[in-house]
Amino acid sequence: MTGKIESRLAELGVTLPDAPAPAANYVPYVQTGDTLFVSGQISIGADGALITGKLGDGLEVADGAAAAKRCALSLLAQVRAACGGDLDRLVRVVKLTGFVNSTADFTDQPKVINGASDFLVEALGEAGRHSRSAVSAASLPMGVAVEIEGIFQVR
Predict the structure, then answer these.
(1) Maximum distance among all Cα pairs of the chain, rounded to whole angstroms
(2) CB within 8 A of 84, min separation 6: which ones?
(3) pLDDT in tens, 94-145
(4) Using H for helix, E for strand and C for coil, what is the string for the chain?
(5) Which of 48, 107, 115, 148 has its CA 20 to 30 A from that of 135?
(6) Apex CA 127: angle with CA 72 and CA 31, to 5°?
(7) Beta bridge mates, 55
(8) What is the mean pLDDT of residues 78-86?
């Protein structure tokens, strides 16, 4: 049986990817009590290709926001994996930290990370509202455009 959150994602025409495997010596998530810490998820397109580039040098805000949304999908996929496949155990998104691969003079990091924030609120309603940081990075792993880590409350 499909849960409430999975049904909402289907209404939005969204299919979560499989939870990405770690790319180095770390685990994808750690749960302590009802708090789930999800490691940074990089921007990967629906075709499995990395979304690379630098905001302010070839990538526009809309491109970055789309990459951030892809990070949010991977975050939810990790939450689903951590919850044994039951995404309805997600109580709320607590905090996101978004890293934007951008030039020194690019200042729209918040607009880029809105791609993730807006999607999470659209998909989860009030449970998707969260605290957040959006920061610039001179570079990100494998040249990706965006990386986002998250803290979630789960049952």
Answers:
(1) 49
(2) none
(3) 999 999 999 999 999 999 999 999 999 999 999 999 999 999 999 999 999 9
(4) CCCHHHHHHHHCCCCCCCCCCCCCCCCCEEEECCEEEEEEEECECCCCCECECEECEEECHHHHHHHHHHHHHHHHHHHHHHCCCCHHHEEEEEEEEEEEEECCCCCCHHHHHHHHHHHHHHHHHHHHCCEEEEEEECCCHHHECEEEEEEEEEC
(5) 48
(6) 65
(7) 59, 102
(8) 98
The b-or-e profile of 61-96 (16+ CB within 10 A means b, else e) is bebbbbbbbbbbbbbbbbbbbbbeeebebbebbeeb
Distance of alpha carbon 97 from alpha carbon 88, whole angstroms: 23
| All domains in the chain, ordered by first residue | 4-8+35-154 (3.30.1330.40)
On whether the CB atoms of residues 99 and 55 are closer than 8 A, the answer is no
Residues paired with residue 97 on neighbouring β-strands, in sequence order: 133, 149
Entry field: residues in the chain:
155
